[in-house]
Amino acid sequence: MIHNGFNNRQIEFPEKQTHVKSFELAMLAISIACVILVVIIVLFTNIGNEFRPTV
Question: Where are the domains of the chain?
Answer without folding.
Answer: 21-50
